[in-house]
Amino acid sequence: MNGAQSLVRTLIGCGVDTCFANPGTSEMHFIAALDTIPGIKCVLGLQENVVTGMADGYFRIARKPASTLLHCGPGLSNGLANLHNARRARSGIVNIIGDHATFHSPLDPPLAADTEALARTVSAWLRTCRDASSVGRDAAAAVAESSRIGGGISSLILPSDASWGEGGVIAGPLPVPSAPHVDALSIDTAARVLRSSGSKVLLLLGGDATLEESQRVIWRIAAATGAKVMAEFSCARVARGRGRMQLPRVPYAVPAAIKTLEAFETIVLVNATAPVAFFAYPDQPSRLYRDDAMVHQLSRVDQDPFEALNALAAALNAPSANIPDPGERPAIVRGASTPEGLAHTIAAIMPENAIVSDESLSYGWGLYPFTYAAPPHDWLHLTGGAIGYGLPVATGAAIAAAGNRRVISLQADGSAMYSLQSLWTQARERLPITTVILNNRSYNIPIGEYKSVGATPGRTAMDMLDLSKPAIDWVSLAGSLGVEAARAQTLEQCADLMKHSFVGLEPFLVDLSI
Amino acid sequence: MNGAQSLVRTLIGCGVDTCFANPGTSEMHFIAALDTIPGIKCVLGLQENVVTGMADGYFRIARKPASTLLHCGPGLSNGLANLHNARRARSGIVNIIGDHATFHSPLDPPLAADTEALARTVSAWLRTCRDASSVGRDAAAAVAESSRIGGGISSLILPSDASWGEGGVIAGPLPVPSAPHVDALSIDTAARVLRSSGSKVLLLLGGDATLEESQRVIWRIAAATGAKVMAEFSCARVARGRGRMQLPRVPYAVPAAIKTLEAFETIVLVNATAPVAFFAYPDQPSRLYRDDAMVHQLSRVDQDPFEALNALAAALNAPSANIPDPGERPAIVRGASTPEGLAHTIAAIMPENAIVSDESLSYGWGLYPFTYAAPPHDWLHLTGGAIGYGLPVATGAAIAAAGNRRVISLQADGSAMYSLQSLWTQARERLPITTVILNNRSYNIPIGEYKSVGATPGRTAMDMLDLSKPAIDWVSLAGSLGVEAARAQTLEQCADLMKHSFVGLEPFLVDLSI
């Protein structure tokens, strides 16, 4: 058995059944092993940022790591931006990064790069296989590490001679390192402050604390104490819709965030970090909460929020409480798109148990309040701010849902251009994804930022932020990659096209003028 | 004057007049400075690997650095693969990488990354600006370092508070560090071995040794001594066509390269490195030359090859010699495309002084011998093996040539998908680029590699290397990005379309079935 074969068998034995791949020459033996050993579904992406973004989306829905297959340092480089987002989402991913043979690298051939240095910037765990005999146990460790709570990215660099060499040994699954228990003092402190001044307390949720299981407990705590609950601005996945909490996010804009948070004397962090501005600005603070606020970490990102919240609810004797009904489901809005109108329309037509991959950016920051009364769904956010996340994450999420959930991909046009190759994989895998391109023909965030610093964009600036010369024809672009598409000028046209797409099992793209 | 303004004025004063950009929020003050200070042409790319590839192509033709403008660590990450290629091409580039304010980074906001670690993997020079007052002198140093022979990439990380802060100081140009002179002993050794056994000597050219000025001297040396001359497989730019040397490259395939090089007892490296295989293979050597060969470094990559060659020619008393005529210009070939037929056809119709951006990969490895009798032209190669180089480099080369030279972009389909956003910039800037997509609907290199290791690709492997499900419609894809395009089934159709494109000043794409 060669190293590559031991790797494939070890991954399968450890529960990894999906590999997002963009292979090159140094990965040929791994691909050859996949040829003869069944048990891993291979999904091809035509650029590596699609591959890594798919792995992120897959984890967010499947709650277990997939592997990637990347080609040497430059192949990894191409995928780093979405690995950055995955790192911020705390998604588990096992990167398999093929590299030059150990005896070849010192000769510095053209493709040689500092692969370890590149991988280190995004990885929680990193190892370069020494030889074929160590590949199996390295892979088992990589999977275990990426499976822990708040675990993140394992990167296994696989020199081609470790891959083709004989002497491979299959390793069994290793125990997943257990999460450190939440400290009793931390529970007591949170309970005391919630009892004494509940309405001045914010429970700020991050990581798995935004999932349904946690929300049920949080609602009991909130109902018993009068505490407010919010999610971080950059959440990996939020359970939303009927039956889930009406959970606002910390606003993006610094003045709005400061205004929202100034009511709170205490912020209790549940797998969250203390809220800071996305960007710094002259004469604006970086911290978004009151200078005199007490910030209390109930559970860290590497701890189990459900355990922490259950202990807190018990300490508070919080009785069971039903999450309130969000009221009537909105209706489709007619006419030109507005953020609010789009939100109502999506809430009106969204199928049960949908997944929303949200890279709507500036247009979408206000969608939350108008979609509380939609059917239950999961909403995925851009966690690390590296644009080009939406289409690949939608693709990986659809793979994880195995055709059983509709994915709605709300996608700003400028960001879509970073990873548009995703559409080809969506067509190839026949994934039930409805992409809505929010087409304003510009980079609207920097225009807004530009204005917010008090400047009027001049000709050069507007030229750098203008995507209208030439205008991108999203309908023929999608068609060229195998995805059916149509244009919508109004929200009712958008709704009709989306509903049409929900009937089929293929991807569809709506180019919505906003 | 703020830091950004001092940066723009310093760059202009140091001769940088072109900025390839994909700006974000942290670069707004730099963009604002460009708004009010004329002198830098700004070229927008819709993904950062397009931006960095354009800067590489620009340098290869302009022979002076442009700047890039990149957004934080993830924006830099997206551009690293083509920076890897630029590093291997030894292209001078001044990266301006916007980053979080110095006081904001320690709070670890979502977009924070280890920007220095990422930049270090491709940079010959790296600095993070401390504050507004240091930006000017840092920029002047960055330009000087990237302008030296074999210099390469300077990366200047610009925290947003160094950009917006007052106290900027314009710096004048710094002297470019001079190249170390070539050692007299090195010249003597080369002269001695050439005199004693010229026909057993290979002069292997890299870097600027493949340019026209060097070739004239090399030909004198070769004619006087009987030495053979070749170029490295991975050359940044080779002067070719009538009046230039008929200069073969070291073959890509290991057996062919070994066969070619086994004739040589001595290899004299002129700004080249000793030839090694692109990839290692089981049971094949990594070094491509004879074990008993003497490898003599005449001039290093950081030295002036023209100086070295002139000194060598003088030591040899090599008389002047005319580079021989390559014979009759080939005619257009008819019928289905073959590598040889395509080469003949391109040689037949290529305009005077064209630039060929070659990412034809496996299809194009044999194009050289059939294009010697074309008009004078420059041929640009994939230097670092990171695919997705061709379209951006063609774009940057056309910018450098300022509309005065036709660029022919020979582009494999799989690689084109990595940086297809380039087509939009070509349309926006109305660049005279003729792209020929060599469309085989597959990743053909790995298929070849797979077979060369004695394996037959099975179903999973072929699935991972097959781009035909769905087939990509390159004509509508190009059209959606503003580039006129048409399909060619035969070489005469291809020739007609290319000739049609040469008349206009706009980009054009031919989707050639191969």
Q: Secondary structure elements and their pairing?
A:
2 copies of one chain form a homodimer.
Chain A lengths: L2 H11 L4 E4 L6 H9 L4 E4 L3 H15 L3 E6 H7 L1 H10 L3 E7 L15 H6 L4 E4 L3 H15 L6 E7 H5 L19 H14 L3 E5 L6 H14 L2 E4 L5 E4 L13 H8 L4 E5 L23 E6 L5 H11 L23 H11 L4 E6 L17 E5 L8 H11 L6 E6 H4 L5 H7 L4 E7 L4 H9 L6 H6 L9 H7 L3 E5 L2 H13 L4 E6 L1
Parallel strand pairs in A: 1-2, 1-3, 3-4, 4-6, 5-6, 7-8, 7-10, 10-11, 12-13, 12-14, 14-15, 15-17, 16-17
Antiparallel strand pairs in A: 9-13
Can you tell me about this structure?
The structure is a homodimer of 514-residue chains. Chain A is an alpha/beta fold and 514 residues long. Chain A has three domains: 3-164, Rossmann fold; 184-315, TPP-binding domain (Rossmann fold), CATH 3.40.50; 339-513, Rossmann fold (3-Layer(aba) Sandwich). Helix content of chain A is 38%, strand content 18%. Chain A contains 20 helices and 17 strands. Chain A has helices at residues 3-13, 28-36, 48-62, 72-78, 80-89, 115-120, 132-146, 160-164, 184-197, 212-225, 254-261, 305-315, 339-349, 390-400, 413-416, 422-428, 444-452, 459-464, 474-480, 491-503; strands at 18-21, 41-44, 66-71, 93-99, 125-128, 153-159, 201-205, 228-231, 237-240, 266-270, 294-299, 354-359, 377-381, 407-412, 433-439, 484-488, 508-513. In chain A, the strands form three sheets. In chain A, strands 9-13-12-14-15-17-16 form a seven-stranded mixed β-sheet, with helices on both faces. A six-stranded parallel β-sheet of chain A has the order 2-1-3-4-6-5, with helices on both faces. In chain A, strand 7 (201-205), helix 10 (212-225) and strand 8 form a beta-alpha-beta unit. The longest helix of chain A has 15 residues, at 48-62. The first copy, chain A, is globular. The termini of chain A are far apart. The mean pLDDT of chain A is 95.
